[in-house]
Each structure stands twice: as C-alpha cells, then as structure tokens.
Design a protein that fits this description.
207 residues; alpha+beta; Pnp Oxidase, Chain A; 8-stranded antiparallel beta sheet; 8 strands; 36% strand; elongated
Length: 207
C-alpha cells in the first residue's frame, strides 16, 4: 500500500493490537483467470515465536480455498478505525479535508486444514475470541452434527511473511491535534477509537 514515512509504523505490537481489535479481515488471492478474489472473514492471530500466523476458514462451496491450495501466496488486510477529518480543525483556512485510518496489510503463505479434529481446534480458537460460552453449546450439539458442520468448511493457516502497518491520524500536522482530538472524543465509535489511538501514541499531548 501507499505508505509515506510519516504514517509508517515499525512497531509490530501496534500491528498485533490492530489485528486483534479488528479481526474481520479481507483475504485476497488470484483466481484461475488471474483476477483478484476477495473473501471477508474473521481471523484468529497466533504468535509462534517471531512468526505471526492467522487462522480462519471458509465454506467448502467458496472456491477461495482452492485458490489457496493452487497459489498459496496471498494478501490479508485489516482495517482499523477510520473517520473523516474536516479542515475546520486547522487555525487557518487554506486546508482540505482528509480521511484518517489505521490499516495492516500482510503477505501470507497458506496451508489448508481439512482434517476434522484440526478444524475443530481451529473453530474453538475463533469461538474463544468472540463468544467463549458458546464452546459448551458446540460440545453439546453431538458428534454427528459437529462432523456435518465441519465437513462444510475448509480451514487454513496463513503464515505472515511480511506486514505493513499504516497509522494515519494527521500526526504530521500538530496544529490540528487539539481540535481534532476534541472532535473525535465526542464523535461516533470510529472517531472515539481514533481518539483512543491518539492517546496511545501520544498525539496531541496524550500519555
């Protein structure tokens, strides 16, 4: 992605935080014709030493798993909080609007997971991320039902081979920070999340 130096983050902890707080990702592969094919899906992030691995699955009817089998290199993108920024945050008028956002792009190498017990373990990790109490209900549905559901999906591990993190919160325009932060703090969910990231990064006098 376009990554000007002022917005480039080398802090992998920031990338991990974004991927965990905003796990609904876009998985992008090439289909048989060489055109991009995109699946939107939640991914579970694991740290295996210095290696980051993303775990997910798609419906068996979704041909994406076949693209991953035939061409394991793919791209995963995560979009964090994002919001419009009005030029009224500046003390002068010679400014234009912009859009602030945080994003992570990962190059990945895919390995398919189709063994039922391995898929069950993968699902339990996703359940643990989003609704831990459902694990008991899943166990209580019975082996026949579980096997039927597992047969309908294909899992995969996506080993991250490279990542880029973009944090664009007007940090190169300090004259905008005070008013921008005050506007974002009373805004919608995305705007409040950006105000929190300003605090985290010390933009506009935060800790």
């Amino acid at each position: 992605m376009y990554l000007p130096a002022q917005f480039k983050s080398e802090d992998r902890s920031q990338a991990r935080m974004l991927m965990r707080e905003h796990p609904f990702a876009s998985l992008i592969s090439l289909d048989e014709a060489g055109s991009p094919f995109v699946t939107h899906l939640p991914l579970h992030l694991e740290e295996r030493g210095e290696t980051l691995v993303l775990l997910g699955h798609c419906a068996r009817g979704n041909g994406h798993w076949q693209y991953l089998r035939d061409r394991p290199q793919a791209v995963v993108t995560f979009m964090g909080p994002n919001a419009y920024l009005s030029p009224k945050v500046y003390p002068d008028l010679a400014r234009v609007p912009t859009w602030n956002y945080l994003a992570v792009h990962c190059k990945v190498e895919a390995v398919l997971i189709d063994e039922p017990d391995a898929k069950d373990r993968l699902l339990k990790k996703l359940i643990g991320d989003h609704e831990p109490p459902f694990a008991q209900q899943w166990r209580g549905l019975g082996a026949d039902f579980a096997q039927k559901m597992l047969a309908g999906i294909v899992g995969f591990e996506l080993r991250v081979t490279d990542l880029q993190t973009k944090i664009k919160i007007n940090q190169h325009r300090p004259e905008s920070h005070a008013k921008m932060k005050s506007l974002y703090e009373v805004g919608n969910d995305n705007e409040r999340a950006l105000a929190l990231w300003m605090e985290r990064l010390g933009i506009g006098g935060g800790a």
